[in-house]
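Worked example 3 (structure in, sequence out).
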């Protein structure tokens, strides 16, 4: 991914087990902040 390029479409499972897609979050003009962690332990 290059800086300032659109995020790809994806679906993740929330902490409560609900499927949430990026498109669903953004459809009503909402914003999303994506954080990519490189090392977890």
């Amino acid at each position: 991914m290059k800086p300032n390029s659109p995020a790809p479409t994806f679906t993740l499972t929330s902490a409560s087990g609900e499927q949430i897609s990026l498109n669903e979050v953004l459809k009503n003009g909402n914003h999303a902040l994506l954080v990519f962690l490189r090392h977890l332990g």
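Notes: The mean pLDDT is 86. Helices lie at 22-26.
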